[in-house]
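Researcher: Good morning. I'm working through a list of sequences from a screen, and I'd like to move beyond sequence-only analysis. For each chain I'm collecting a predicted structure so we can compare shapes side by side. This is the next one on the list. No need for commentary yet; just the structure.
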Amino acid sequence: MTSANERLGNIERLLLIEGKLIMSALDELTAQVAANTTVEQSAVTLIEGLAAKLAEAGTDPAKLAALQDSLKASSAALSAAILANTPAAPPAPPAPPAPAP
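Model: Good morning. Structure tokens for this chain:
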């Protein structure tokens, strides 16, 4: 028969393990929030920069063409980075069998 002290010791060890698992999950969540915040801030910076460049170009056809070329190059680079870093989609599940008549 185990003593009350042994049982309390077991409970304490389980609580410590559970606490470490929770802290690990919290650390992962914190890192993901930081990454999302960085991406969101980058998008805001991009949009603000684009607005400023459009205002700077005004109605000058040469400046607008240069801005368009710059945006095309940036778009191509962004698309390539997304494709390179996006995991392939999992295969679709098989279709359910047709109901029997």
